[in-house]
């Protein structure tokens, strides 16, 4: 700030040298925490002239110099304004008034009227009392400058100012936003809250719409309670305002240009939203309560409060497509799934602002504070690969977790929403018994999200009228709370009485609304007047439904086309300087493209992506090292050593190719895998890949694998073509860097729910990845991908094998043998094959044949039968694996091997002994075990 401007500011704010002590106190507070002073004061302190050669990186001048600086400016200003009369006491109180305004912005929420039950025991915040600032009853009649407070003009009588501050910050809304560092965002929130004193001036139609939402919420629960007494429904009662809140969010989003909204939530209130917001027919829900849909989708089905739904909702800005995500009981894990679905929809629409598709996640108060996936999802919210333009996060704050007292047992923070402060999200706490405040906050939240592309949180402080479910007796553990709830009127009654009292509606109109809704439920048809039949808002899944594993698909392509692709993806501009090792890799790729060298793993894999892109399909790959590849093999993203710019050869395939995104992810497995699952469920046409840094790390995402990937189709009819690349192989790197836990995936395999493959050559990985896109079937693909095989001299392929071949589920013996002399056949998968092959050749073993099983599930019985036709005389079959006996494929797949071998033959095991740990940690012991299992398999 220029010195002249500063003097003018000091004059206008009545500062004089007499207030230098207070200035020094505020400056000290500013130095400790710049956010502790008002924006006006921070602007002054931010622009103080530096003394003694100080800079922005050097400590500021001594306080005495600051004090003298303000004194000199004030004296100079008084000398130039001789006619101006100042009162030091009034000037000092002016500063205190500004401080009081700031205190309400910072801490008003702590004394806001948020708890409908009045059970919160919150101490009064002294800084919110005018007396704390030395302001007396006499001062109440005086006019003071209101600084940046956006209500009532530049000056206000102190009495009116205090009243306005209390209404804005200590009423039904408690706004937490001063932790945000961006001044523009804070100013925006102040301009939305302060002029209207934290309320909206709704007309009769808007108020009626809000009451209709409350009528629907309460009417639905009472109807279910009477019709199906004691049945679990996870009632919304007490949090009824969620229904009008969601409706206002949809209306506001539609007006702003939102075309799709994806919602993720757990159990509570789900059935209510399905019927009263998304428009599911009550009759269909009642049939589910009656158990009439147990055979839905010919799968296992799922409980009612896990089900998803899609519909269109009419708003003044056009129809909005609504999608409620299917959700298992692992509550918060649906959040990144929703974000992934939203990102896919945004990418398909070419919308990089997030405006056209909005995510809403609805949380419980215990869950949002207690489950780490919430932190992970917040953390990814602004990252390049996972941003969605901000999300709206709603907490249905029941003030109790199952039977647990929240403040004492479920968290260590004042609010359950404090986790959101890590991304500086504004948090609006709101009393659920004030539905107009709820509607107002909903509109502000949508506008903030669209304006700043950031997350925003609504803490709907309510209560749970019944137990955790309707069979529970809550008073056993919360006697005082439930004694209060029994006497507390419902949100609908409170608001209806208020509208009657203010003459907005008559008592007969209120009664008529209740009866009309109940009649609609009796009829069983949709009760949402804004519901519209769905149009093509989302992708068409029709081409991928009811497809079989063995359907033919066009696997081959011309050698000329493949050679052309190879040339394009091995080219790097001369001015893009590569790191020396990377330059060597690309030099080799040029030789491979020219047919001078056989293809390695990295080049074949990249060619698969190039061919998919040339077909105008999308490719998306994420993982902690996916651009480079954990084991330095992919190098799809090339970093210029001079200026750090990135070059992606895969974006130079053709002018009209499909889009490709290869992004290093946040350091998480659970949230990233869930995100990619969500992405793949909303984008079936392309190839979506999640790559683990090491396959073992998939452990951290086990809930996603169990609850979504392996069972989503069986439970919900949800198809998903997500590919998981899990580096796997025993190479002496210890227990946590060897095994991708193959056995866990095989244990989950049933009903042809997913593919588990262990490719062993570059041609195999090429065909496997292309098959995942070209074949019109969308089920998860789990790949035990290699580490040392990436550069193994025998793990190479020719361009011809890629062009004319196909994926081989089983690979027969490759060496020429006299099959009549073979008396043992060894089945194996992955890296161990090459160790067996090399050892057999070295020892000149001619009586053992090696058969590679490249797809362990669905087990390729027909392919295996064709290969074993020449070994029907063999009685000795062996399964050889690197993993311990209780792990790997032995226990989960041996029944397939038994069914494949000739009658009367024996099947034995060659591998490590059973072990509690996946692998040993000593290199010497590893080598000894490895040699032993190889020798055992080959009868050496």
Automatic annotation (TrEMBL):
Kindly give the InterPro entries that the UniProt entry links to this protein. 2-oxogl_dehyd_N (IPR032106), 2oxoglutarate_DH_E1 (IPR011603), DH_E1 (IPR001017), KGD_C_sf (IPR042179), ODO-1/KGD_C (IPR031717), THDP-binding (IPR029061), Transketolase-like_Pyr-bd (IPR005475)
Q: Which keywords, in A-to-Z order, does the entry hold?
A: Oxidoreductase, Thiamine pyrophosphate
Q: Which GO cellular component terms are attached? A: cytosol; oxoglutarate dehydrogenase complex
The record's GO molecular-function terms, alphabetically, read: oxoglutarate dehydrogenase (succinyl-transferring) activity; thiamine pyrophosphate binding
**What biological process terms from GO does the record include?**
tricarboxylic acid cycle
Q: Name one Pfam family in it.
A: OxoGdeHyase_C
What are the Transketolase-like pyrimidine-binding domain coordinates in residue numbering? 599-792
- Reported EC number(s) for this entry are 1.2.4.2
What are its cofactors?
thiamine diphosphate
Give the first-level EC class, as a single word: oxidoreductase
Q: What does this protein do?
A: E1 component of the 2-oxoglutarate dehydrogenase (OGDH) complex which catalyzes the decarboxylation of 2-oxoglutarate, the first step in the conversion of 2-oxoglutarate to succinyl-CoA and CO(2).
Q: Which NCBIfam families match?
A: 2oxo_dh_E1 (TIGR00239), PRK09404.1 (NF006914), PRK12270.1 (NF008907)
* Name used for this protein in its record: 2-oxoglutarate dehydrogenase E1 component
Q: Which organism is it from?
A: Shewanella colwelliana
This protein's encoding gene: sucA
């Amino acid at each position: 700030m220029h010195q002249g401007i500063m003097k003018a500011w000091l004059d206008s704010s009545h500062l004089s040298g007499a207030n230098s002590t207070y200035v020094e106190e505020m400056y000290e507070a500013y130095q400790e925490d710049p956010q502790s002073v008002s924006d006006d004061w921070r602007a002054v302190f931010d622009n103080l002239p530096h003394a003694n050669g100080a800079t922005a990186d050097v400590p500021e001048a001594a306080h005495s110099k600051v004090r003298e600086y303000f004194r000199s400016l004030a004296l100079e200003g008084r000398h130039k304004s001789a006619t101006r009369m100042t009162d030091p006491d009034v000037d000092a109180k002016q500063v205190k008034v500004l401080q009081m305004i700031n205190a309400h912005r910072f801490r008003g929420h702590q004394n806001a009227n948020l708890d409908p039950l009045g059970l919160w025991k919150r101490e009064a915040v002294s800084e919110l009392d005018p007396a704390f600032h030395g302001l007396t009853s006499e001062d109440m009649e005086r006019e003071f400058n209101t600084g940046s407070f956006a209500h009532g003009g530049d000056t206000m009588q102190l009495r009116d100012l205090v009243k306005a501050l209390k209404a804005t910050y200590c009423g039904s809304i408690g706004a937490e936003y001063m932790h945000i560092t961006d001044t523009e965002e804070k100013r925006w929130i102040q301009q939305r809250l302060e002029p209207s004193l934290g309320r909206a001036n709704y007309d009769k139609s808007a108020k009626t719409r809000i009451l209709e939402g409350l009528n629907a919420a309460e009417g639905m629960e009472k109807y279910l309670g009477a019709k199906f007494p004691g049945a679990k429904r996870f009632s919304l009662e007490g949090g009824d305002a969620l229904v009008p809140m969601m409706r206002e969010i949809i209306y506001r989003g539609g007006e702003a240009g939102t075309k799709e909204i994806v919602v993720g939530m757990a159990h509570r209130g789900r059935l209510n939203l399905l019927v009263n917001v998304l428009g599911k027919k009550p009759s269909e829900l009642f049939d589910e309560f009656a158990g009439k849909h147990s055979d839905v989708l010919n799968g296992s089905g799922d409980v009612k409060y896990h089900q998803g739904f899609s519909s269109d909702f009419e708003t003044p800005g056009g129809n909005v497509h609504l999608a409620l995500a299917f959700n298992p009981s692992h509550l918060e894990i649906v959040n990144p799934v929703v974000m992934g679905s939203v990102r896919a929809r945004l990418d398909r629409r070419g919308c990089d602002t997030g405006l056209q598709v909005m995510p809403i996640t609805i949380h419980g108060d215990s869950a949002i504070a207690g489950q780490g996936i919430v932190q992970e999802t917040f953390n990814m919210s602004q990252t390049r690969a996972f941003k969605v333009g901000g999300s709206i996060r709603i907490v249905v704050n029941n003030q109790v977790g199952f039977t647990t007292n929240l403040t004492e047992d479920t968290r260590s923070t004042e609010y359950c929403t404090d986790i959101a402060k890590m991304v500086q999200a504004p948090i609006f706490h709101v009393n659920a018994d004030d539905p107009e405040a709820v509607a107002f906050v909903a509109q502000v939240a949508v506008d903030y999200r669209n304006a700043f592309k950031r997350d925003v949180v609504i803490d709907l402080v309510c209560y749970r009228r019944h137990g955790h479910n309707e069979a529970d007796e809550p008073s056993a553990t919360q006697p005082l709370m439930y004694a209060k709830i029994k006497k507390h009127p419902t949100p609908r009654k409170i608001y209806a009485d208020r509208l009657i009292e203010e003459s907005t509606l008559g008592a007969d109109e209120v009664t008529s609304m209740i009866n009309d809704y109940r009649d609609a439920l009796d009829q069983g048809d949709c009760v949402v007047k804004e519901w519209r039949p769905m149009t093509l808002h989302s992708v068409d899944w029709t081409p991928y439904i009811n497809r079989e594993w063995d359907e033919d698909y066009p696997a081959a392509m011309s050698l000329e086309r493949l050679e052309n692709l190879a040339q394009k993806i091995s080219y790097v501009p001369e001015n893009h300087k590569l790191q020396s090792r990377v330059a060597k890799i690309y030099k080799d790729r040029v030789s491979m493209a020219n047919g001078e060298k056989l293809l390695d793993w990295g080049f074949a894999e990249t060619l698969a992506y190039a061919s998919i892109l040339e077909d105008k399909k999308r490719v998306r790959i994420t993982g902690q090292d996916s651009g480079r590849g954990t084991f330095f093999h992919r190098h799809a993203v090339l970093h210029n050593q001079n200026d750090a710019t990135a070059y992606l050869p895969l974006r130079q395939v053709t002018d009209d190719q499909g889009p490709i995104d290869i992004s290093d992810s946040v350091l998480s497995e659970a949230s990233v895998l869930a995100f990619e699952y969500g992405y793949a469920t909303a984008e079936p046409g392309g190839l979506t890949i999640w790559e683990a840094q090491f396959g073992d790390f998939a452990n951290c995402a086990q809930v996603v694998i169990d609850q979504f990937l392996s069972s989503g189709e069986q439970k919900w009819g949800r198809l998903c073509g997500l590919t998981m690349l899990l580096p796997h192989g025993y190479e002496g790197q210890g227990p946590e860097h060897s095994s991708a836990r193959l056995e866990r995936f095989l244990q989950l395999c049933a009903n042809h729910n997913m593919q588990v493959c262990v490719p062993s050559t570059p041609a195999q990985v090429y065909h496997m990845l292309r098959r995942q896109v070209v074949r019109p079937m969308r089920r998860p693909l789990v790949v035990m991908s290699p580490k040392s095989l990436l550069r193994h001299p025998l793990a190479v392929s020719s361009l011809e094998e890629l062009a004319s071949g196909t994926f081989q589920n089983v690979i027969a013996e490759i060496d020429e043998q006299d099959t009549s002399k073979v008396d043992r056949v060894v089945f194996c998968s992955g890296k161990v094959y090459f160790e067996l092959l090399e050892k057999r050749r070295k020892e000149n073993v001619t009586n053992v044949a090696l058969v590679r099983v490249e797809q362990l599930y669905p087990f390729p019985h027909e392919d295996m039968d064709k290969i074993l036709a020449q070994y029907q005389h063999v009685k000795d079959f062996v399964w050889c694996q690197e993993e311990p006996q209780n792990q790997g494929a032995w226990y989960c797949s041996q029944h397939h091997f038994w069914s494949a071998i000739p009658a009367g033959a024996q099947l034995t095991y060659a591998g490590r002994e059973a072990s509690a740990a996946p692998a040993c940690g000593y290199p010497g012991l590893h080598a000894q075990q490895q040699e032993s299992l190889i020798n055992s398999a080959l009868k050496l």
